[in-house]
Amino acid sequence: MLSKEGIAKRIAKEIKNGYYVNLGIGIPTLVANYIPAGIDVVLQSENGLLGMGPFPFEGEEDPDLINAGKQTITTLPGSAIFDSAMSFGMIRAQKIDLTILGAMEVSEHGDIANWKIPGKMVKGMGGAMDLVASAKNIIVAMQHVNKAGESKLLPNCTLPLTGVKCIKKIVTELAVLDVLPEGGFKLIERAPGVSVAEIRNATLGKLYADDDVPEMVVE
């Protein structure tokens, strides 16, 4: 199985040269550390930053530079800082080429639930609803199962929805999957050492898988 860092490394391979990319809270923030060499991208943080760099080394943190998850970050030459109104103007105007989000649940139809668990305190929905409604492309970075071992890839989401039929690709500790237009998860790659049977057992939603699904390469 992949670690959280392994998930981030695999997703980083999906980033294309020249992309503007928004990184959500959690595993997605780690992607900033694994941008492939030679790939020129601009990372956006919805609290008002273009040109976000990797996490700072210990002792070099600047408490005035944070991402949307309130983690300290770095900036790169040419970065720009502005207010959240301008940031969401960029998002709603579809200036972001790729959004990478965490999720609590994803349905076989591409619905996502990632902002609220009923009965638990929540600070707010953040920018996720704007992002899933406006992004040209969305990749979900998530754990395949919850702490109880129950699948988070479902026929239908049980938690309040963030967006409907908006997710196209998912990367978990077990697999890379596409969400098919007609519904269902298509297994694209297996994590090293993980079998198709293990992925089937961990997926409650409809899963389509060939017999010779390749292992993903994470360097």
What does this protein structure show overall?
It is built from 5 helices and 13 strands. The chain is an alpha/beta fold and 219 residues long. The chain has a single domain (4-208), classed as Glutaconate Coenzyme A-transferase, CATH 3.40.1080.10. The protein is globular, with a radius of gyration of 17 Å.
Radius of gyration from the alpha-carbon trace, in angstroms: 17 Å
Q: Would you identify the CATH architecture?
A: 3-Layer(aba) Sandwich
Please give the number of β-strands: 13
The helical percent reads 10-25%
Average pLDDT value?
A: 92
Shape: globular
CATH homologous superfamily identity: Glutaconate Coenzyme A-transferase
How many structural domains does the protein architecture include?
A: 1
Main pleated sheet? 10 strands, mixed
Terminal CA distance reads: 14 Å
CATH third-level topology: Glutaconate Coenzyme A-transferase
CATH class category:
Alpha Beta
Task: Describe the structure concisely.
The protein is α/β, with parallel strands linked by helices and 219 residues long. It is 16% helix and 23% strand.
